[in-house]
Write a structure and sequence with these properties.
Helices cover about 0% and strands about 20% of the residues. By secondary structure, it is mainly β. It has one domain. It has a two-stranded antiparallel sheet. Strands 3-4 form a two-stranded antiparallel sheet. The chain starts with 5 loop residues before the first strand and ends in a 15-residue tail after the last strand. It binds iron/sulfur cluster. The site of iron/sulfur cluster (SF4) has 12 residues, from loops.
Amino acid sequence: MEKKSNHCIACSVHQCANNSGEGYCALEKIQVGTHEQNPTVVQCTDCESFVLGNQNCKDCHF
Ligand code: SF4
């Protein structure tokens, strides 16, 4: 199934199965969260809708 870009959600995480491949997320909505108790910088936030779609993603740690 072809993924349709949601132009309201720009995303450059091409390793994600939900990425349209055109610089956007293909989902209707995403969930953003944090893994910190007191988030202070952008690195504290996470896209919790991420799904690994590229097995060549060697930078991801599980
Ligand atoms: S689910 Fe999150 S990480 Fe994946 S393409 Fe959408 S916005 Fe990007």
